[in-house]
Amino acid sequence: MDIPHHFCGFGLGLRKDHYQHVLEHRPEIDWFEVLSDNYMVEGGKPRYFLDAIREHYPMVMHGVSLSIGSTDPLNIKYLQRLKALADVIQPRWISDHLCWTTANNINSHDLLPLPYNEEALNHLSQRIQTVQDYLQYPFLIENLSSYLTYNNSEMEEWEFLNEIAKRSNCKILLDINNIYVSSRNHDFLPEQYINGIDKDAVWQFHLAGHTDYGDYVVDTHDHDVPDPVWSLYRYALRRFGAISTMIERDDHIPPFDELYAELQIAKKIAEQEIPNITQQLITQKAYG
């Protein structure tokens, strides 16, 4: 199985706890994902470290504040700052969530799901096209972990996500942990979700931990990747092949070496499912 041109290998989310370690030790990481919203001002300590680290590693950008599903007008000032950052970092791509966060210019500070219907499809696809045209970078949309559904939904989430990607010509950031969390909360088979996603639309995987409360599961990003998510990741590799994969950790952040060891698990699983994936990546990097 040949790797696709957009495959970047295996990465981690860049967090402030690890700035110094990364600069001092230059770990063998294929790429870093940076949280766009943390760096959208010039100057300051975060930008200093970001500028230093990006000299040595490819990067992608991931945001939480685009509110692409809101009925509020797109935040042009936010887009301007986002593009200014991207033009400095030169990311492989930019991503955000399939959600809304604002209503009537009030920020909920949460990633809220949408109804999966034709009205939402038309609204979202137009806004995503506008964002892509403005940013001039590949744009990926990420599936949420969700805790509620809408009575006026007309299709499954994976069908909605496929149609968004098709209509707007964007790509998909498939969060494997979010699929698992939502499957527990809404009682569907996570494998059905993965089987339903267009193979050619997926460019990135997220892996993360969650908190299991028994009756429901919350996407907390404060634990190691659990066994059910590793199993689902293996299943996704069989479905999609070589996909750029990273591990998210946003709370209870461990020492860098612990996260690095966890990333090696992801790499080992990928090597088991896709023979020669590492050698193909080395060859791809060598020949550009």
Structure description:
The chain has 288 residues and is an alpha/beta fold. It has a single domain (10-286), classed as TIM Barrel (Alpha-Beta Barrel), CATH 3.20.20.150. It is built from 10 helices and 12 strands. The strands form 3 sheets. The protein has an 8-stranded parallel beta barrel with strand order 1-2-3-4-7-8-9-12, surrounded by 5 helices. A two-stranded antiparallel ribbon has the order 5-6. Helix 4 crosses helix 5, helix 7 packs parallel to helix 8 and helix 8 packs across helix 9 (256-273). The protein starts with 9 loop residues before the first strand and ends with a helix. The model has no long low-confidence stretch (mean pLDDT 95).
Layout of helices and strands:
Elements: E1 10-13, H1 19-25, E2 31-35, H2 44-54, E3 59-62, H3 76-89, E4 94-97, E5 100-103, E6 106-112, H4 118-135, E7 139-142, H5 157-168, E8 171-175, H6 176-186, H7 190-196, E9 202-207, E10 211-212, E11 217-218, H8 227-240, E12 244-247, H9 256-273, H10 277-286
Parallel strand pairs: 1-2, 1-12, 2-3, 3-4, 4-7, 7-8, 8-9, 9-12
Antiparallel strand pairs: 5-6, 10-11
Helix pairs in contact: 1-2, 4-5, 7-8, 8-9
